[in-house]
């Protein structure tokens, strides 16, 4: 593993404890007025998302430890679970999420935990770039004997250098994404590592009015029997 990337993962491990303390401090605050209660909720939400990302970074170092088995996974169930978790965040920021399932193959070969994180990172990015006149979209469909999960946003288009990294299907290190400051290049780094481990293809499509991130997953042999 690249020394720079390995250093990032070491730092992530060190950040986990103070983030957990910050979250616990927010929970321990006494009775608050409505404005302060809103601030506390934001503190808890931000710290929990940061902890989740730190945990994902730590998992990258353990992908080869045999902890993440491949198995038949219901892709719709994973998408439902992610959208439920982020529903509050979309609603809190007055964002809309459109979901469409058209895949006939219900099971894919993946690791549920890792697939959850990939879709979570894509949706979290999309939330930043949906607005009052646009929406984020989560689409699951059959594609070339695979199942394709697409997350579409309507924000600034993805810079060409980042798109090329995604087109290759492998992000070597966390990226800084110009014009999309709320977007997490770290999230794309995590997603690409998890996708590569699951033998899935990851990529992005640049639109004039936004970006689509996707992951293509092999259909489970168990599913093909039916």
Core attributes:
single chain; 226 residues; alpha+beta; Heat Shock Protein 90; five-stranded mixed beta sheet; two-stranded antiparallel ribbon; 7 strands; 20% strand; globular
Topology, element by element:
Blueprint: H1 3-28, H2 34-60, E1 71-74, H3 75-92, E2 97-101, E3 107-110, H4 112-128, E4 136-143, E5 146-153, H5 160-168, H6 185-197, E6 201-207, E7 210-218, H7 221-224
Parallel strand pairs: 2-4
Antiparallel strand pairs: 1-3, 4-5, 5-7, 6-7
CATH superfamily of the largest domain: Histidine kinase-like ATPase, C-terminal domain
Taking pLDDT < 50 over at least 5 consecutive residues as the criterion, the unreliable ranges are 177-183
> How helical, in percent, are the residues?
40-55%
CATH architecture of the largest domain: 2-Layer Sandwich
Termini Cα gap: 40 Å
Folded structure, characterized:
- This protein is an alpha+beta fold and 226 residues long.
- It folds into two domains: 3-65; 71-218, Histidine kinase-like ATPase, C-terminal domain (Heat Shock Protein 90).
- Helices cover 50% and strands 20% of the residues.
- The protein has helices at residues 3-28, 34-60, 75-92, 112-128, 160-168, 185-197, 221-224, and strands at 71-74, 97-101, 107-110, 136-143, 146-153, 201-207, 210-218.
- It has a five-stranded mixed beta sheet with strand order 2-4-5-7-6. A two-stranded antiparallel sheet has the order 1-3.
- α1 (3-28) packs antiparallel against α2, α3 (75-92) packs parallel to α4 and α4 packs antiparallel against α6 (185-197).
- The termini are far apart.
- 32% of the residues are buried.
- The model is unreliable at 177-183 (pLDDT under 50).
